[in-house]
């Protein structure tokens, strides 16, 4: 029954890949949401006058912040989120390839196992 054990092992590995894939997709969706939010903030900053007062929420307190400083912070955040999305897209591609390979391996092992049972 070595084939059955090998099949179980490969199925478990495939399921783990699927779980990891789901987590990465969820993280990417969350980052996309944050990116949209920050892009909206950046557009709002463009509409403000140069001497406008900007406040940043830090915990339960609103802290006064210079508009140029706030604008730079938002741009940096957008750059960071964009780079994280690109990194996750690479992970997604890699996990897709691993899933495909593992899926083929599982199918091959299933065929071997069924042939053994039939014999």
TrEMBL record:
Gene3D superfamilies given in the database record: 1.10.287.370
Gene Ontology molecular function: protein-folding chaperone binding; unfolded protein binding
Pfam families linked to this entry: Prefoldin_2 (PF01920)
Transmembrane segments: none
A GO CC term assigned to this protein in UniProt: prefoldin complex
Coiled-coil intervals: 4-51, 78-119
Keywords attached to this entry: Chaperone, Coiled coil
Family named by the database record: Belongs to the prefoldin subunit beta family.
Protein name: Prefoldin subunit 6
């Amino acid at each position: 029954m070595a084939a059955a054990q090998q099949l179980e092992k490969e199925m478990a590995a495939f399921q783990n890949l699927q779980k990891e894939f789901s987590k990465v997709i969820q993280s990417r969706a969350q980052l996309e949401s944050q990116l949209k939010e920050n892009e909206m903030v950046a557009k709002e900053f463009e509409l403000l006058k140069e001497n406008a007062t900007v406040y940043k929420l830090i915990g339960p307190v609103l802290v006064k912040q210079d508009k140029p400083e706030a604008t730079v912070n938002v741009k940096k955040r957008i750059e960071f989120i964009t780079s994280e999305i690109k990194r996750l897209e690479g992970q997604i591609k890699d996990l897709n390839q691993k899933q495909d390979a593992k899926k083929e391996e599982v199918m091959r092992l299933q065929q071997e196992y069924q042939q053994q049972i039939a014999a």
